[in-house]
Automatic annotation (TrEMBL):
UniProt feature, compositional bias: Polar residues: 235-246
Domain spans labelled Paf1 complex subunit Cdc73 N-terminal: 1-107
Homology family: Belongs to the CDC73 family.
Top-level taxon: Eukaryota
A single BP term in Gene Ontology: transcription elongation by RNA polymerase II
Name of the protein in its database record: Cell division control protein 73 C-terminal domain-containing protein
Residue span of region Disordered: 230-273
InterPro entries named among the record's database cross-references: Cdc73/Parafibromin, CDC73_C, CDC73_C_sf, Cdc73_N
Length: 444
């Protein structure tokens, strides 16, 4: 006996009618019990749908879903029925609109289709294998040919199921025994078709290109450096002086940023001392108030910085002049907040760094850790006197200078302490800052 799901699908898709007789459903000369399980597995429920559930669904497929439920529960008193999750998929399959479904147990479908039982109205079993093998060599197994064979030989649906299995086996054997050159020709033709439809998007060269990468800044810097070197090479006297200066700077770099050696001091003396402040707009000291703070000993808070003469105008560099204790002359300090642009020899002139207390401030600097940075320069942190020191800054080699939020007349105490401690640090580490300028022709 064949699978009831396949038999029902054949009748539904072809528009043929079946007959319900007592506890059986009759499809032509094939009978199934109403509770015969099909190969369709319900979603959210164990087991399989029985044949009667599918027949009821087909008989009432013209009704909307809510009326379908009322009909089943009120008139038919059906306890189980096709669920909402399976309804559309199952209906399309039975009508022949889809070829298969993941809810079908294929193993159950094939095994039941291949069963051999006596035909209705015969005295004994037919020799189905012999008939099937003879017909399998003649027909290719599609449904149309099988129906023609059924009419000409008198085979019922059971025999047709067996015949399908035999024909599928023969087709599989033919495919396995195909010659390699024929398979190669098929693959070659398919490759040609696919190749004709291809569109080249990237190759090994274009894959390395990206529109977001722009190295023009680096190229311009290199070109400018080479141009300066070429211009200097045309002036013999200047070239000798520059060569000597570069040698002295190289020696100074080897001695380290904090070295007090003679070579380092000679190279650094060519550049004014540098003070670095945070670029953070919310920092207590930055480029908008550093001149008022260090020259005039007056703190300008973030809320008042926009009221100054220059407002919040962004500047790349500032200059501060200060007479240091023990120094013979005023010292001009360069103030910057982005030391990334400092050249190698300029780093030897960095004497002080104001920190906002966050290590990310030094991320892209030459000395990008607090340990390395404050080993070669004086570290300072400005805080309010009513706020405690928090976080990792407590372990850094820096000095803390406290100011009051409202008492501006006390700012001078903190700033005076900063200059005194910086002067003491310069005497020990970078005394060239305090030395008088060299007079041409005079030996020290």
């Amino acid at each position: 006996m064949g699978d009831p799901l396949s038999v029902l699908r054949g009748f539904v898709s072809s528009g043929r009618k079946w007959d319900v007789q007592g506890e059986e459903i009759v499809f032509g000369d094939v009978r199934f019990k109403k509770d015969e399980e099909t190969a369709w597995k319900p979603i959210g429920r164990p087991g399989y749908y029985n044949l009667m559930e599918l027949v009821i669904m087909i008989d009432h497929a013209h009704l909307p879903w809510n009326q379908y439920l009322k009909k089943i529960g009120g008139v038919l008193k059906q306890q189980t029925f096709v669920g909402r999750l399976d309804y559309n998929d199952l209906l399309k399959y039975l009508r022949g609109e889809t070829a298969t479904s993941k809810q079908i147990d294929q193993g159950r479908l094939i095994s039941r289709a291949a069963l051999v039982t006596p035909s209705v109205g015969t005295g004994g079993p037919l020799k189905r294998p012999a008939v099937g093998q003879r017909l399998a060599s003649t027909f290719d197994g599609d449904d149309l040919h099988l129906r023609e064979v059924s009419r000409s030989t008198g085979l019922d649906a059971q025999a047709l199921g067996e015949l399908r299995v035999l024909l599928e086996t023969k087709r599989r054997r033919l495919e396995e025994g195909a010659r390699e050159e024929e398979l190669f020709k098929v693959d070659e033709e398919m490759h040609r078709i696919l190749k004709a439809d291809e569109q080249l998007l990237n190759d090994r060269n274009t894959a390395l290109l990206t529109p977001t990468a722009d190295y023009r800044v680096a190229l311009n810097t290199v070109e400018a450096t080479l141009k300066r070197a070429k211009d200097l090479s045309g002036k013999s006297g200047t070239s000798r002086v520059r060569s000597s200066v570069l040698e002295n700077r190289a020696v100074g770099r080897e001695e380290g940023p904090s070295s007090g050696g003679r070579s380092s001091s000679r190279g650094s003396r060519l550049h004014p001392p540098i003070i670095i402040v945070p670029s953070d707009p919310s920092a207590l000291v930055n480029m908008t108030n550093v001149v008022d703070l260090l020259e005039n000993a007056k703190f300008v808070g973030p809320q008042d910085r926009g009221k100054s003469k220059d407002g919040l105008k962004r500047v790349k560099e500032l200059s501060i002049t200060k007479v240091l204790d023990g120094g013979p002359r005023p010292v001009r300090f360069r103030v910057v907040d982005n030391p990334v642009w400092l050249q190698e020899q300029e780093w030897a002139s960095v004497v002080a760094v104001f920190s906002n207390g966050k290590a990310w401030q030094f991320a892209d600097w030459k000395h990008n850790t607090p340990v390395d940075l404050f080993h070669g320069c004086f570290g300072a942190v400005l805080i309010f006197d009513d706020e405690p020191v928090r976080g990792e800054v407590k372990g850094w080699n820096v000095k803390f200078y406290k100011i009051n939020k409202n008492k501006r007349h006390m700012d001078g105490i903190a700033i005076s302490s900063f200059w005194n401690q910086l002067t003491g640090w310069l005497k020990l580490n970078k005394p060239w800052v305090l030395e008088p300028p060299a007079v041409p022709g005079r030996k020290k």
